[in-house]
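Something for you to look into today, if you have time. Just paste the record in under my message, thanks.
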Amino acid sequence: MLSSAASYYAMDTSENDTLNKVFTPIEDPDPEQLEYPFSYIPEYDIRRFCGTVLGEPEDLDPGNFPHNIAEYYWIQEGMNDGDEWCCLCKLENGYYVYYTASCDYTGFDCQGGMDMYIASTREGIFQGALTEDDRRTIVRDKTE
């Protein structure tokens, strides 16, 4: 069995084509779709909700997230007590991030949470941070 790091390099051509589609930057992203959860990041300690994916060094730095996002690949606008806010992006330092946030009907200051995963490669973030459902949704959205 291949380790998770080795499996990144064992991708066949169709998987690489999929990654190329997923990691095509959004031409005209609308970061305002994420404005609400991003506004609460200063109130959360980013170290408490940011983690590296398996096989990556633990000291990958998200920097001044979200102000250092260089490219957006996928954005899902969320809703209180509904779908999560999600963002797949690349930072100015070259690292890849998958960010999710959710809250109940009262908002982030009552019942809310955020998760952020960071990796040095697109393969690492795609395979190590996203669930199978996340991958399926993003691939569907990016190829329709």
